[in-house]
Amino acid sequence: MTSAVLEIVGVITEAAQVFVEARTLAGIRAAKEGFAAPGQIDRLARHHGAKARWVLDAWTESWLAPAFANWTIDADLRRIRCAILAMHGNRDDYGSRAHPERIAALAPTAADIVWLSACGHVPHRAQTDAVLTAIQTFIANRVTLRTTDAPGAGCS
Predict the structure, then answer these.
(1) Nearest CA to 95 among 74, 120, 77, 65?
(2) How far is CA 26 from each of CA 15, 22, 32, 131, rounded to the nearest angstrom?
(3) Within 13 Å and on the Cβ side, how many CA atoms surround 152?
(4) How far apart are CA 13 and CA 107, in angstroms?
(5) Among residues 20, 14, 153, 18, which one has the least CA distance to residue 99?
(6) Dihedral of the CA atoms 105, 86, 119, 96 (nearest 10)?
(7) What per-residue string of b and e applies to 127-143 under the rule 16 or more CB within 10 Å gives b?
(8) N or C end of the chain, less CB within 10 A?
(9) What is the tens place of the pLDDT at every residue in 33-61?
(10) Which residues pair with 84 in a beta bridge?
(11) Of 81, 111, 103, nearest to 15 (Cα)?
(12) For residue range 103-112, what is the model confidence (pLDDT) as tens digits?
């Protein structure tokens, strides 16, 4: 008896950073400084609980480390074999339009870019309806759900 494997048929990104850019580092430095003010870590605690300080330090120190300066996911993007939806806000403090454009340029498959106006780093909160519409459109136009018996098949 064979077991069916669900094939990955689409990738959806929201405010993804795929390389280190000056805008990303500047935004992280500003956030780190802002969270140093009294009471600001409480904002993160609403989402991360007791791990808020750890989350902040892991995020800021990783991105700002000199050893991370040349990080990219370029090789991974070149291996994707399914449709991609890359959503990004035009007011994202942590990344420019270069990120979704790089995703589309390097992935060897169809990649749709949704550029959200008047939107920062958290599109699903800032423009929930636009994000849901983009996802619904992407799934309707680019995604075909199917199963296969071939192990390892699908998007890689």
Answers:
(1) 120
(2) 16, 6, 10, 26
(3) 0
(4) 13
(5) 18
(6) -30
(7) beebbeebbeebbeebe
(8) N
(9) 999 999 999 988 998 999 999 999 999 99
(10) 11, 111
(11) 103
(12) 999 999 989 9
Has residue 156 got a pLDDT over 60?
A: no
For residue 80, the tally of other CB atoms under 10 A from its CB is: 19
Q: CA separation (Å) from 51 to 33, 48, 70, 82, 94?
A: 19, 6, 28, 35, 22
Contacts of residue 78, Cβ cutoff 8 Å, sequence gap at least 6: 106, 107, 108
In single-letter form, the type of residue at position 49 comes to G
pLDDT of residue 87 exceeding 90, the answer is yes
Structure tokens of 137?
Answer: 């459109």
Show the 3-state SS of 96-127: CCHHHHHHHHHCCCCEEEEEECCCCCCHHHHC
